[in-house]
Amino acid sequence: MVSVEKWNGTGNDFVIVPGTAPIEDEAHFTKHVCDRETGLDDVHSRKRGADGVLFLTLHDGTPPRVEMHHVQPDGSTPAMCGNGVRCAAQWALNRTEAESVIVEPPAGPHPATPTADGIEIEMQQPRFAPAAVPLNRPTPLVAESLGGFDITAVSTGVPHAVAFVDDIADYDLSEVAPPIRHHDIFPEGANVTLAEWVGETELIQRTYERGVEAETDACGTGAVAIGAAAVRTQRVAPGTTLSIQPPGGTLAVTVDEEQVLMAGPVEREFETTLEATRRSVTPSPTD
Questions:
Q1: What is the spatial distance between Cα 32 and Cα 222, in angstroms, rounded to a whole number?
Q2: How confident is the model at residue 280 (pLDDT cuts 50, 70, 90)?
Q3: Which of 113, 234, 255, 270 has the fewest CB atoms within 10 Å, i.e. is most exposed?
Q4: Residues forming the active site
Q5: Topology of domain 2-113+266-283, per CATH?
């Protein structure tokens, strides 16, 4: 039996599983619990299924550390997930008396602290260098035409193709994003993030996520990618705090050379017990 919790960060939802859980086939487990039609559900769940599974291991320390292994519905394991880190941070804080924690996905350590309405994490510096994104070209991709959009490519732990657009609601991401997501210029693929300015420091965000292969209600690394692209293309000054609004809520993002911060709400939806085997995952009959 495996005890799991369902969490979401600004609508970006995850199933959290202890890292010691005896799950032999993580990819198969993840595919089944995350399925939007047949996956994990509960009366307290915002949506059936999830955008991924976070396998977390909490370690003592000052501050405590949380190892985060993230598996996406297609079985891939991204190096970073901003909203996943925020959910992992609150999960850990609920189990300690600490005032802060460090969450460690493969992309590296991310300090996290609670705020009045959620969790703030310190992100790594965005990178535009071709080898860092990565790109199949020797120069950065900044505000260049690609797939019908002016694209800026940036890594915020994972690769993003960012475009600033008008009338963001008019786009069908399931049609316009895949040709960019799979473009030859991105040897490892890319998340595709659109942003529309609705105020001096306010933007609407929509992201088609690599690994989920669909639009998600929020994407933390995408929100930071928007902030980074806005600074790089001189739309805002470094250090400006942006209010970025994906479908699931609002994230505050600040990008400058000294520090990159992302903050927003997190929510624990429910806890349950699953009977997990190598080929199946079903709710416990006692739930």
A1: 25
A2: very low
A3: 234
A4: 81, 219
A5: Diaminopimelate Epimerase; Chain A, domain 1 (3.10.310)
